[in-house]
Amino acid sequence: MLAERGSDSGVLPSSLKVCRLETMILTFTAWRVESLCPQIGWIEIDPDVLWLQFVAVIKESVKAAEIEMTQIVGLGISTQRATFITWNKKTGNHFHNFICWQDLRATELVKSWNSSLIMKLIHSSCRMLHFFTRSKRFLAASLLTFTTQHVSLRLAWILQNLVEVQKAIEEENCCFGTVDTWLLHKLTKGSAYATDFSNASTTGLFDPYEMCWSSFITSLLSIPLSLLPPVRDTSFNFGSVDEEIFGVPIPIMALVADQQAAMFGECCFQTGDVKLTMGTGTFLDINTGNSPQQNIGELFTDAAETEKMAKSLEDSEGVYFVPCFSGLQAPLNDPCACASFMGLKPSTSKHHLVRAILESIAFRNKQLYEVMQKEIHIPVRKIRADGGVCKNSFVMQMTSDLINENIDRPMHLDMSCLGAASLAGLAVGFWTDKEELKKLRRSEVVFKPQKKWQDYEVSMERWVRAVRRSMHWYNEA
């Protein structure tokens, strides 16, 4: 996302800032990156295609905003989390495609590590150390488990299976990075190599208590610390885009992971502010202030404009949908679960199927919200939602009922781009402070609870039963 300066006398007024930003965000979100599936459970992105699309999107966004590249005062980059790549330090050539966060190739490694004697010893010793020291760091270590969503074991899989990566590491000629790091490398033609805290924290290799790469986990998994990029502040001068790419050397002022970017874009600046994103997945995040807390998992689903179909029925007539196209995340954490419909009968229509899908999203939101309340002891201050699924008022209202909270839906739903722009804009003085950003955010509607969550209790209990019956499917097949 780009921060733009006026061509004549300094900075644009707030109304024009919003107008121009929305034009550029809409252009960005019109592009979709194709996922590759070379084997069952493997999900990749072609880095060369991604790079070409990235450059084209920036050029088209600037054109759509009717400005010149010379007016851009800063670039903020919001990227998909926990997707990574390795490349040759000397040539810049990548050793493999991006390995996406949904990729399941490390499933067996995850199972093996989580059930290993080493992990049991780590858990028991850290519980004992926590008992004597009351250190939250030891408490967190006593709960440590690996998942396929972490970069950690997917990177370990690459190191174990790709000979050219092993050789490059031995020759100290291998670079590793999440999408932000690789784009930074490409934009600066290799002169800059770094990541930010938001992206580093989602790899499973980062220590949030020491705010650095974890020497313990990297040593445990035989991942060289020298392979990992330096970690900088999210809002930071990372260097400038090489002049040959866009014709001018644009400063790169922010790297940020998409969910953290969306949270910043929603102006969730105070402890207790909650951001609920419903797009390619469901992501529930709370501002915990300066205290590291347990992470919340993710959901995978896709929803179209189905609100009228769902509202045309009283209920789903006993049909339940389990939305786990890439396994189940927290709190169940089963990569072998399957997506499924249950309770189908002769009278089931497509309307029932649609309503069951939408209800599953709301039930999942309730489940995540309960986990957050249980694990993170911070009073919820306000909830702001974003993502494509938020356009569906049926899901929004049912979620509000289930969690018994107001949910604010903004005018613009793609908050990760706005968050990246806000961070870059603050870094170069385009906006003076966060209070100015709050004034720019516009709410479309606030959903308030209309029913008690107990009205859905029986249906949710049956949905939970359906979820459990879908678990461990690929183990048993």
Short description:
The chain has 477 residues and is an alpha+beta fold. Helices cover 41% and strands 17% of the residues. The protein contains 19 helices and 20 strands.
Tell me the layout of helices and strands.
Elements: E1 2-4, H1 14-29, E2 44-45, H2 47-64, E3 72-79, E4 84-88, E5 98-99, H3 107-114, H4 117-133, H5 136-142, H6 151-161, H7 163-170, E6 174-178, H8 179-187, E7 195-196, H9 197-200, E8 206-207, E9 212-213, H10 215-220, E10 231-232, E11 235-240, H11 243-246, E12 251-257, H12 258-265, E13 273-278, E14 281-286, E15 299-300, H13 307-311, E16 320-322, E17 340-342, H14 350-375, E18 382-386, H15 393-403, E19 407-410, H16 415-427, H17 434-440, E20 443-447, H18 457-469, H19 473-476
Parallel strand pairs: 3-12, 7-10, 13-18
Antiparallel strand pairs: 1-3, 2-5, 4-6, 8-9, 11-12, 13-14, 14-15, 16-17, 19-20
Helix pairs in contact: 1-2, 4-5, 12-16, 14-15
Structure description:
The chain is an alpha+beta fold and 477 residues long. The protein folds into two domains: 2-106 and 148-262, 2-Layer Sandwich (Nucleotidyltransferase, domain 5); 267-406 and 448-476, ATPase, nucleotide binding domain (Nucleotidyltransferase, domain 5), CATH 3.30.420. Helices cover 41% and strands 17% of the residues. The chain contains 19 helices and 20 strands. The protein has helices at residues 14-29, 47-64, 107-114, 117-133, 136-142, 151-161, 163-170, 179-187, 197-200, 215-220, 243-246, 258-265, 307-311, 350-375, 393-403, 415-427, 434-440, 457-469, 473-476, and strands at 2-4, 44-45, 72-79, 84-88, 98-99, 174-178, 195-196, 206-207, 212-213, 231-232, 235-240, 251-257, 273-278, 281-286, 299-300, 320-322, 340-342, 382-386, 407-410, 443-447. The strands form eight sheets. It has a four-stranded mixed sheet with strand order 1-3-12-11, sandwiched between helices. Strands 15-14-13-18 form a four-stranded mixed sheet, with helices on both faces. A two-stranded antiparallel ribbon has the order 2-5. The protein starts with a strand and ends with a helix.
